[in-house]
Amino acid sequence: MAAASANSFLVGNNNTQIPTSQSLLHLTKPNTFHLPGKKTKPVSVRCVSSPTQLQDGSKPIPTGSQDRVFNFAAGPATLPENVLLKAQSDLYNWRGSGMSVMEMSHRGKEFLSIIQKAESDLRQLLEIPSEYSVLFLQGGATTQFAGLPLNLCKPDETVDFVVTGSWGDKAVKEAKKYCKTNVIWSGKGDKYTKVPSFDELEQSLDAKYLHICANETIHGVEFKDYPVVRNPNGFLVADMSSNFCSKPVDVSKFGVIYGGAQKNVGPSGVTIVIIRKDLIGDAQEITPVMLDYKIHDENSSLYNTPPCFGIYMCGLVFEDLLEQGGLKDVERKNVRKAGLLYNAIEESKGFYRCPVEKSVRSLMNVPFTLERSELEGEFIKEAAKEGMVQLKGHRSVGGMRASIYNAMPLAGVEKLVAFMKDFQAKHA
Ligand SMILES: Cc1ncc(COP(=O)(O)O)c(C=O)c1O
């Protein structure tokens, strides 16, 4: 009998078979489960406190890999397998506390140690200077589209926007409710395939800040460098939702960096805001308490109940990124993966096409189309049969999109490239 993945066992998957002793190896506290929807004998399960070590000192055996697909989703996206397995073994009893992270008080010493370690690991990863605060918030990056103008300017003040895709466009539309907006450059006319040269930008002299989306997830357009803000009192704000922690970033070039966690660093539900401390504390009066950076900063992101489990998961990812050698090494891997895929597109002699200008192609989201667009449905279906899922492009642009965030293994990209070559040969 094949070992059920411990994951499917915990979620009560109907296909789940009774776990073998192997998949229960890292469980020591007896418990009894009935698998839902099936007439089965009660199953005795044992759980341990330590996720990383078994009683004999060895690491838990990864039980899930044979069941997993290569998931090219844009977000929520694939997470590192070792992080998922660690979370799985922590799930029932976190480090001998007798509680799951989901059951802990956010004010208890256990959770405080989790959030503090997550912040300190993130600070180490991104080398965040001490004059910046790190906030773990909720509401997604979309909520920050309102939170930023509410906190950073008054209704009659102007914010400049460089719009390189749909997310930048949404940020403008939301900001318009709370300040004056000035779109100083938009790539819409070119179907969002470019980043402007910074010299050609006509920045407002009095703009409170300049907003960019560092990586446009839908269009696959990524800033490789950042504009300098013309107003000496202004600053740069970047939505880094889809390239957060994918490479080193000089945080000191920005007033604010923000992003949802669900692409590169955790599950949905956590939004990270990195903000220069002197920019905190002058929010518009109408700012809801949950959007006020000062409130969250003064309360170390614990003003109300935070997304505890999500923050814990982000912490595991930060730990994993540090163990991989930090963001320089992570970037090297990402460059290699993206290079493989873009090369395959180029070498296809037009069978596959990427519309994005070469110099600003994203390391994270690779959109491509087929010369014969009628084959796109078949491409997506056949790829799924081979365990490569979520390759359909965003509904607004069509075609395909392979999101290859940090957690996508090189093997996933190699498999996709091999599949693309086979598919082309079949349809040449
Ligand atoms: C670049 C970018 N900004 C903002 C968002 C919106 O994020 P959320 O869904 O967390 O509000 C997304 C979501 O995909 C995104 O990719």
Automatic annotation (TrEMBL):
CDD domains in the record? PSAT_like
* Catalysed reactions, semicolon-separated: 4-(phosphooxy)-L-threonine + 2-oxoglutarate = (R)-3-hydroxy-2-oxo-4-phosphooxybutanoate + L-glutamate; O-phospho-L-serine + 2-oxoglutarate = 3-phosphooxypyruvate + L-glutamate
Job of this protein: Involved in the plastidial phosphorylated pathway of serine biosynthesis (PPSB). Catalyzes the reversible conversion of 3-phosphohydroxypyruvate to phosphoserine.
Q: Which GO terms describe its cellular component?
A: chloroplast stroma
Task: Tell me the organism.
Answer: Raphanus sativus (Radish)
InterPro entries hit by this protein:
Aminotrans_V_dom, Aminotrans_V_PyrdxlP_BS, Pser_aminoTfrase, PyrdxlP-dep_Trfase, PyrdxlP-dep_Trfase_major, PyrdxlP-dep_Trfase_small
The keyword Transferase appears for this protein: yes
What does the similarity note say? Answer: Belongs to the class-V pyridoxal-phosphate-dependent aminotransferase family. SerC subfamily.
UniProt KW keywords: Amino-acid biosynthesis, Aminotransferase, Pyridoxal phosphate, Serine biosynthesis, Transferase
Protein name per Swiss-Prot or TrEMBL: Phosphoserine aminotransferase
Specify the Aminotransferase class V domain's residue ranges. 69-416
Query: Which SUPFAM superfamilies does this entry report, sorted A to Z?
Result: PLP-dependent transferases
Read off the PANTHER family from this record. PHOSPHOSERINE AMINOTRANSFERASE, PHOSPHOSERINE AMINOTRANSFERASE 1, CHLOROPLASTIC
Q: Does the keyword Transit peptide apply?
A: no
One GO term (biological process): L-serine biosynthetic process
**Required co-factors:** pyridoxal 5'-phosphate
